[in-house]
Each structure stands twice: as C-alpha cells, then as structure tokens.
Specification:
- It comes from Neoroseomonas terrae.
- It holds the Pfam family MFS_1.
- The structure is a single chain.
- The chain is mainly α and about 375 residues long.
- It has one domain (about 1-175, about 195-380): MFS general substrate transporter like domains (Growth Hormone, Chain: A).
- Helices cover about 80% and strands about 0% of the residues.
- It is built from 18 helices and no strands.
- The two termini are about 15 Å apart.
Length: about 375
C-alpha cells in the first residue's frame, strides 16, 4: 500500500502542476488569469472524458490494472513534459492539459481497485489511504511557493512529468491481491448498473452530494482566507487545511471498517455541511474561522473513500473498476460546474453565503447514505 500510495502521489503531480506553474506564467505576462483558469478546467474536463471512455469500454476491468496504470502515467508524463515546448497559453497547451487529465482515469479509479484487491475487513482503510494520497498531492502545491518561492513554469511542468513517469514505473512493483476479479467480456451496457442497482444508486447520489462541496471548497478556501486574515499569502494555511483531510481519510476508514460505512460517511457529511453553513458568520472572528476551516478540511474529504468502498461492496465482482470509474466520472463532471459557478456566486452574494450553498450537497448526500446503511448491514462482507 505504501508503494501504491507513493505511485499515486507522484503521478497526480501532473494534475496540479498548473497550480505551481500559473503564478510564474501570470508574472511573466505569458498567460492571463482567465486563460490560466482554463489550464485547470482542461484537466478536469479531460478526466471526465477519460473516465467516460474507460467506463464505456470497461478498461479498468478488461485490462491488466498495473499495466493500464503505468501506460496512463507514462502518457501523462509525455504530455506534461511536452508542455514545456509549446506556447504556455495556446491551444496546444490546453490540449496537453486535457490529455493529462484524461489519463488520470487510468490512475485514480484503477488505484482504488488495486487497493481493494487486498481488502480483508479493512476495505475502508485501504481506499482511505488511496484518497489520502490524492489529498496530499492536491495540497502540496499550496505549500511549495512558501518553501522555495516562485517556480519557473517549465520547471514545474518538467518536474511533474518526471515524477509521473517514476510513479508509473513504481506501480509495476505492486502485486495485486487475491480479490482482483476475473477479466469480464466487453459489455458497454454494464455501466448502467450504477443506476439500475438501488444500492449503487444511493452510493452514487451520496458521492454527488460530496463532490458538490469538495473541490469547490478546495479551490476557493484560499480566497476566503485572504479576506478573513487580511494577508495575500495564505498558502501554508490552505496546505494545512487540506492536509487535515488526509488524516480524516484514514480515521474515517478505520471507523468505517468497524461500523457501518454508510453511516460513517453520513456523519462526515453532516459535519462538513455544517462547517459550510457556519464558516461565513465565523469570519468575524479570524481564529474561529480558521478553526472551522480545519474541521471542514478534515471532514470534507474524510467520507470520500467510503463512497468508493460502498461501490466495491455492492458491485458485480468483475466490474468493480467500471463502477468506480462511472462514479468518479459523474462526480468530477459536477465539480467542473460548481468550481466555475462559485466565484460568480461569491461576487453576487459573499464568500460566506456562497460557501453556505455548498452545504446543500453534503446534507442531501447524508440522507442518501443513511438510506443505504441498512442495505450494507444485510450485504455480504466487503470483497
């Protein structure tokens, strides 16, 4: 699991390479803030396209998981390294970012499937480690500028490309567990099982409520803290808030393996949704707002692994990878919409009220997970 988590963190560096590269690009006048936003959006949209293609073709289940992970990581590495040779804000740059995002469809969901293959009563913890690795990879770019200052955009992309190649090769040393499942025949209609099966449908509805909040919170909590703390540099605070979620993933994973994972996820969603509602009024007291932000950072992603664990437990064994890919595809498509809409809501209302609207998702998602809980009690032990 340490090997798999390390590979995921290394490969996912290509996803967030733009976070490090953009400040230097803007400073040098090579990209406008609006165009820079598209560099991030292109990765999100690429991931959605990649997961849709993977789900239709059942790639995560029909191909060798390690080799698929490695191949996608190497393509991401090439795309990111090539980024240093093209105009940083041109069409080619956006296309390369799209390709890098699309290849993550063969990394993140596949990584969860590889982890689940070793589950022996600790499914929540194993997938929690994978999501924790994703969370740390997401948080790290916020810390780097404070540690080493501004980074040249070519170094950011080149370094991420090299790390992705290393992560892809590293995963070849991972040995799949006994619960990997057979390679099924090609059945595109199998992806519809995500909605035909009531248990999977409830798990996916809970996940959509979770994703309504998660990435928008990660994307805009820094803007909120700049106003609350009255200082332009809040990267270290944002890193700490997001990194708290990695701890939350492990803690919730341990709890979910002991109790009903749907109820654990619902509890996390109630906490994170509550934080979304109160952080705006708490802004009048900076110390209190920071405290709420850290609790929010802990809870907002702590439940993430449990939606995937529910899908693993309720899916046909040979199509676990496909069901995980369908789930992440729907969730990340929703994040692209919410991330883009939230700054407009902030301008129209206020950051605090905009964050309160994010609370709607997890509170509704908690209802879906609470309804799912009795079904998990009756299900067989997680595979």
């Amino acid at each position: 699991m340490a090997l798999l988590a390390a590979a995921i963190v290394l490969v996912l560096s290509v996803w967030f390479a733009g976070t490090v590269a953009v400040p230097g690009l803007i400073r040098d006048g090579l990209v406008s803030p609006g165009r820079a936003a598209w560099l991030t959006a292109a990765v999100q949209l690429g991931f959605v396209a990649g997961t849709l293609l993977s789900a239709v073709l059942s790639l995560a289940d029909r191909l060798d998981a390690r080799r698929l992970f490695c191949a996608c990581a190497l393509v991401a590495a090439v795309a990111t390294l090539t980024q240093t040779a093209v105009a940083p804000s041109g069409t080619a740059a956006l296309a390369l970012r799209f390709v890098a995002g699309a290849t993550m469809a063969g990394v993140y969901p596949v990584g969860m499937k590889l982890a689940a293959s070793w589950a022996k009563g600790d499914l929540g913890l194993l997938i929690g480690i994978v999501v924790g690795a994703l969370t740390l990879g997401s948080a790290l770019p916020h810390l780097l500028p404070g540690l080493i200052g501004s980074v040249d955009w070519r170094v950011a992309y080149g370094g991420a490309g090299g790390l992705a190649a290393l992560g892809g090769l590293l995963v070849l040393g991972f040995r799949p567990g006994p619960l990997m499942g057979a390679r099924p025949p090609f059945q595109p209609a199998q992806m519809l099982e995500a909605w035909r099966n009531r248990g999977l449908r409830l798990a996916n509805l809970g996940y959509l409520g979770h994703m309504w909040e998660l990435y928008a919170m990660w994307a805009w909590i820094g803007v909120f803290l700049v106003g609350v703390l009255g200082r332009p540099q809040v990267g270290s605070w944002v890193f700490g808030i997001m990194a708290a979620g990695a701890v939350g993933c492990v803690v919730a994973g341990l709890a979910a393996d002991r109790w009903n994972r749907a109820r654990v996820a619902a509890l996390c969603m109630l906490v994170s949704g509550g934080c979304a509602l109160v952080i705006g009024p708490a802004a009048a007291w900076p110390a209190l707002a920071l405290g709420v932000a850290f609790v929010w950072g802990f809870a907002v992603v702590a439940d993430s692994a449990q939606f995937s664990a529910c899908v693993v437990s309720l899916s046909p064994p040979d199509y676990v990878g496909t069901m995980l890919t369908v789930q992440t595809s729907m969730g990340f498509l929703l994040t692209a919409v919410v991330i883009g809409a939230l700054p407009h809501v902030m301008a129209l209302l206020s950051p605090g009220l905009a964050f309160a609207l994010l609370g709607i998702g997890p509170l509704l998602g908690a209802i879906a997970m609470w309804r799912l809980a009795p079904m998990l009690d009756q299900a067989l032990s997680p595979r």
